[in-house]
Amino acid sequence: MRGERQLLRFGEYLVRRACQRLPQDLRKERYREWAAELPAILHDPQVRPAPRRAVRMLGYAADTARGAAMAPGTARGRISRTSAALDRLFPVAGLVAVALEIWAIVQAPGDGLNYLRLAWGLLLVAYLIRKRARPAARLTALLGISATLALGVVFLGNVAQAPEDWVNYLFAALLLLPLLVGLPVAWWLRRLQARTGGRHAAPSDPWTF
Amino acid sequence: MTGPLERVLGAFLTDPAAPRYGYDLMKAAHLPSGTLYPLLARLEQQKLVVSAWETPQEEGERPRKYYRLTGEGIRIARLELAQASARRQRAPTRTGRPVPGSLG
After folding, report:
1. Per the domain annotation, does A207 fall within a domain?
2. What average pLDDT does the segment A139-160 reach?
3. Least CB-CB distance to A208: which of B2, B27, B64?
4. Extents of the domains making up chain B
5. For the segment B56-94, what is each residue's pLDDT rounded down to a tens digit?
6. Which one of A28, A63, A76, A200 would you mutate to disrupt binding with B, by most B Cβ within 10 Å of its Cβ?
7. I want to staple A67 with a disulfide (CB 3.0 to 4.6 A). Which of A27, A33, A147, B34 is the partner?
């Protein structure tokens, strides 16, 4: 297959990155094990056509990061400390953005897009503050979804103002499409969970992983 | 017992004596690598699975790691799968939501 070596090298890079999350004593062995599967996946005769094998191999390599994050003794603590620091920083950055938008409205009160940006900024700050207090609450999720929607609408506004700039289309699609697909899927999963009485919830015996 | 674990044990039990490598188990259990490897690590930690490196057949070939259920692993896996199956059979069949106004 053309580009096979590059694909394998990229897969190995992903696995190497994943292994960096593991404790030092596990890294080498896990890398050896996971990287050894890459050529096998890329040459699996049961999977056709070749691009499907390539996608499968890259999916395998990328997902090892999730496996590494779940392994006992990983650097999860370090990640959560970084995440906590960012949680403190983001609301401040959001407030600065809101202040700048208010200033922009004062400068150009006729520009509707500034009001949209301000609405997005306010929703984002509300979401970030709420997330710190009650991360799992329904209102937090609603605020997060609303902030994402508002940002998508801001990019659509940008599209209207500068239709030749493809970046606005890209960001509008990146923000709005996952919501348009994800929200019905989430709604369906919730219904399914309600119907099965939460049977898929994790049990608490030692076999629960 | 979780669904992924049930599928991994089921895959092992199709031929308990046969050593299986990660990708083989991924295909048999229909699980992604990020789910399978932590499961294998835990099973190995609990001494229900043992692993060994293969001897490469050709020069330059990367050896793969093979996993196999231990005797205790086979016993517990069979027991757990049988219990899970019994639980499923005992579970009442659901007939949907009751119609408003009905006794259901």
Report:
1. no
2. 87
3. B2
4. 3-55+62-85
5. 777 778 899 999 999 999 999 999 999 988 888 887 655
6. A63
7. B34
Question: Top-level CATH class of B3-55+62-85?
Answer: mainly alpha
CA distance B34 to B51: 18
**pLDDT mean over A36-51:** 88
The sign of the torsion formed by the CA atoms of B27, B33, B35, B37 equals: positive
Stretch among A136-150, A172-186, B83-97 having the lowest mean pLDDT = B83-97
ipTM of the complex: 0.81
Q: Which residues of B touch A36 (CB under 8 A)?
A: 62-65
Is residue A205 situated within a structural domain? no
Indicate if A161 and A86 belong to the same structural domain: yes
User: What is the pTM (predicted TM-score) of this model?
Assistant: 0.55
What are all long-range contacts of B3-7, with beta carbons under 8 Å and residues at least 24 apart? B3/A200, B4/A209, B4/B29, B4/B31, B4/B35, B4/B36, B4/B39, B5/A207, B5/A209, B5/B39, B6/B80, B6/B81, B6/B84, B7/B31
| pLDDT tens digits along B84-96 | 888 888 876 554 4
CB atoms within 10 A of CB A110: 6
Q: What is the pLDDT, as a whole number, of residue A137?
A: 74
Which residue range forms the structural domain that includes residue A121?
82-195
Same domain, A65 and A91: no
